[in-house]
Design goal:
Length: 145
């Protein structure tokens, strides 16, 4: 399971020009799910999302987590994140989980996030989504669990 996280001052996701999820200051997490991923990996990823220290403290050092600043978490499924891009000029998606497994684990991650933290927003699994964000920094990390 992978998440490309971006520290944002604001982010929103839209489907068919309708905003379906949005946050202010916080983390936009694009989540890719692989065939061997499990609920345990989703739990580990959620722990990292909530506690990864990418927000600055009073000394301008990255010492604060999302939970520390009470920021928003916007979770968006993105199967292209786990594409195999090592050879050729066209990505292969054989390394991505099946749509059924991907949706099951993404929904598990979302439910766990909403039970443990607020605010949490999301996109729509499998939809053609438009992401609008202001990356703060820019600060972007790839989390791989």
């Amino acid at each position: 399971m992978k998440a490309l996280i971006q520290r944002v001052t604001e982010a929103r996701v839209a489907v068919e020009d309708k905003t379906i999820g949005e946050i202010g200051i916080g983390i936009l997490a694009l989540v890719g799910i692989e065939p061997d991923d499990t609920p345990a990996k989703a739990d580990k990823l959620l722990h990292k999302l909530l506690n990864y220290r990418i927000f600055t403290d009073e000394n301008d050092k990255m010492n604060r987590s999302l939970a520390d600043i009470n920021g928003g978490l916007l979770l968006v499924s993105q199967f292209t994140l786990v594409a195999d891009t090592k050879s050729g000029l066209r990505p292969s998606f054989s390394t991505a989980a099946s749509p059924a497994l991907g949706e099951e684990l993404f929904n598990y991650l979302l439910v766990q996030a909403k039970q443990k933290y607020t605010p949490v927003a999301t996109g729509c699994f499998g939809a053609n989504m438009q992401i609008h964000l202001i990356n703060n920094g820019p600060v972007t990390f790839l989390l791989d669990v």
